[in-house]
């Protein structure tokens, strides 16, 4: 599974980091970091983060 | 094959359909939505859409929610509203007279803007809820246009900020002491007003609108206030709150006083095969107390849809494990280039205090500010402006801990 974040769309709401802290976080400079290819067991968590993003910036692919 | 009817095809209705599939419901789903467009994201309507110049199709390309493969087959009926339902018969009547039979119903009909009960100036009065609303309003936001925004809540203030940026002479008229008072409290609201004023937006607070002054061809030239003063205006936006879309549910024994009353499973009181999601649902947020409330935040449709879909699927015989449900309302707003973030229910507070920073316009822009909200010494909310996401996440985590450590 692949997680893509469209950084043009991302407005740093941080909802993804609240929904899935194991996959999304912010570094010291406030830049979004995420696990690019998590194991499939985390599919549901990743989908929940994508759904929670107010800018719809996250897509989950295979 | 059992059929679930979802009425309302916006964020809540779409998430309910997805959640039904995720819960393992393989039966039929009919989704009836009054808007002609596929489900799209509303919050940008008062922000990017008003500031930009994209066409309707261009906006939709940006804002339509992606259709997920796991949704499978759905009987979409867009541009069609449900006129009435008869629960005893399990039947819905659509606006074109056709009928849909259903075994369970999910109510996702949201809100519509409340209108002022005043006559006149029909062509110059606007509301903002839908994409066509936004495009019609945007067409009038030309440099030099005088705009009166009636209601200084979030939508009113966002429209004000966008209109000002487009070069309009902008006045916000608000009956309370400061804008966004109900949601953020008086201190934060006053600070927001100062920020808007620094951007050139005028405020008439503590004032109600009593009439629209028009010329012989019914075109607006001023808005009359309750002290008989006039605010000159070429157009007016009515942002005075909203009204739940529940008329179509009448006659079935629901409590429709303010939205549809639900229990903590999101099941409608009195009807186990009916559930509600999103803005239209009045339900208890057990993190706070057992008082049912409607919560008009973007985060709520997604959270309530999972809960409602689990309940409905269970009613139809699907084994769905019960998960705890204590959604934390969260909210954001973008105004004048600053992000406001809010978690919990600050509106419940009897005490407010700064947790970080200070509320002057310059210091808010420089360092941000964070306010805490308490009810009977228990924290019930946090609101911030201009703080980095990770900092707000930490404040929100503190709030969740405070809420969980207190029993009802
Ligand atoms: C301009 C604007 C800006 C916003 N900004 C923010 C923000 O910054 N942050 C935030 O947290 N929230 C914001 N919100 C709130 C957020 O968009 C809502 O909470 C969310 O849209 C609620 O979704 P919903 O599906 O419950 O209801 P709605 O989106 O209201 O959807 C209900 C749907 O049901 C349809 N319908 C109604 N009656 C019928 C019927 N009888 N038959 C069939 N269909 C029917 C309607 O046409 C509509 O499409 C904003 C809202 C607006 C309007
Ligand atoms: S929720 Fe969306 S907008 Fe916010 S930080 Fe995550 S990806 Fe970016």
Automatic annotation (TrEMBL), chain A:
Keywords: Electron transport, Iron, Iron-sulfur, Metal-binding, Transport
Transport in keyword set: yes
Lineage top rank: taxon: Bacteria
GO terms, molecular function: iron-sulfur cluster binding; metal ion binding
Protein name: Ferredoxin
InterPro entries recorded: Fe-S_cluster_ET (IPR051269)
Signal peptide segment: none
Keyword Membrane in record: no
Pfam families: Fer4_13
Automatic annotation (TrEMBL), chain B:
Assigned keywords, A-Z: FAD, Flavoprotein, Oxidoreductase
Transmembrane stretches, start-end: none
Signal peptide: none
GO CC annotations, alphabetized: cytoplasm
Keyword rRNA processing: no
Required cofactor names: FAD
InterPro entries to which the protein is assigned, alphabetical: FAD-oxidoreductase/Apoptosis, FAD/NAD-bd_sf, FAD/NAD-binding_dom, FAD/NAD-linked_Rdtase_dimer_sf
Keyword Oxidoreductase: yes
Domain of life of the organism encoding this protein: Bacteria
FAD/NAD(P)-binding domain location: 3-295
Any one GO MF annotation of this record: oxidoreductase activity, acting on NAD(P)H
Gene3D superfamilies: 3.30.390.30, FAD/NAD(P)-binding domain
The protein, known as: NADPH-dependent 2,4-dienoyl-CoA reductase/sulfur reductase-like enzyme
Organism encoding this protein: Dongia mobilis
């Amino acid at each position: 599974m692949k997680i893509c974040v469209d950084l043009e769309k991302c407005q740093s709401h941080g909802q993804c980091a609240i929904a899935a802290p194991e996959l999304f976080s912010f570094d010291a400079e406030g830049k979004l970091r995420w696990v690019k290819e998590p194991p499939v067991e985390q599919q549901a968590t990743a989908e929940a983060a994508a759904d929670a993003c107010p800018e719809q910036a996250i897509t989950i692919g295979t | 094959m059992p059929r679930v009817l979802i009425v309302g095809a916006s964020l809540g209705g779409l998430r309910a359909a997805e959640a039904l599939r995720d819960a393992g419901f393989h039966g039929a789903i009919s989704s009836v939505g009054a808007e002609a467009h596929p489900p799209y994201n509303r919050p940008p309507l008062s922000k990017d859409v008003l500031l930009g110049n994209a066409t309707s199709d261009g906006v939709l390309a940006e804002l339509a929610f992606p259709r997920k493969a796991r949704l499978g087959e759905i009987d979409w009926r867009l541009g069609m509203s449900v006129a009435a339902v008869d629960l005893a018969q399990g039947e819905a009547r659509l606006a074109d007279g056709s009928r849909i039979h259903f075994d369970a119903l999910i109510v996702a009909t949201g809100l519509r803007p409340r209108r002022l009960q005043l006559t006149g100036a029909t062509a110059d009065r606007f509301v903002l809820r839908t994409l066509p609303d936004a495009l019609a309003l945007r067409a009038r936001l030309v440099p030099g246009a005088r705009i009166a925004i009636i209601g200084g809540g979030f939508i009113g203030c966002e429209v004000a900020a966008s209109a000002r940026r487009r070069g309009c002479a902008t006045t916000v008229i608000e009956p309370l002491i400061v804008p966004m008072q109900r949601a953020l409290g008086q201190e934060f609201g006053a600070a927001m007003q100062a920020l808007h004023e620094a951007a050139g937006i005028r405020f008439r607070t503590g004032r109600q609108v009593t009439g629209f002054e028009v010329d012989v061809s019914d075109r607006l030239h001023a808005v009359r206030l309750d002290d008989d003063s006039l605010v000159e205006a070429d157009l007016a936006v009515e942002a005075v709150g909203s009204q739940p879309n529940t008329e179509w549910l009448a006659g079935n024994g629901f409590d429709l006083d303010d939205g549809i009353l639900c229990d903590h499973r999101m099941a409608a009181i009195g009807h186990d095969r009916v559930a509600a999601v999103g803005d239209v649902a009045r339900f208890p947020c057990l993190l706070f107390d057992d008082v049912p409330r409607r919560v008009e935040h973007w985060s709520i449709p997604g959270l309530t849809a999972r809960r409602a879909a689990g309940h409905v699927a269970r009613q139809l015989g699907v084994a769905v494990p019960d998960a705890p449900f204590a959604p934390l309302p969260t909210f954001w707003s973008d105004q004048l280039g600053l992000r406001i973030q809010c978690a919990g229910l600050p509106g419940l507070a009897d005490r407010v205090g700064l947790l970080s920073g200070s509320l002057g316009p310059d210091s808010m822009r420089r360092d941000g500010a964070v306010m805490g909200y308490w009810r009977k010494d228990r924290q019930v909310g946090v609101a911030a402006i201009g703080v980095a996401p990770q900092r707000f996440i930490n404040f929100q985590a503190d709030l969740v801990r405070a809420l969980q450590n207190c029993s009802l």
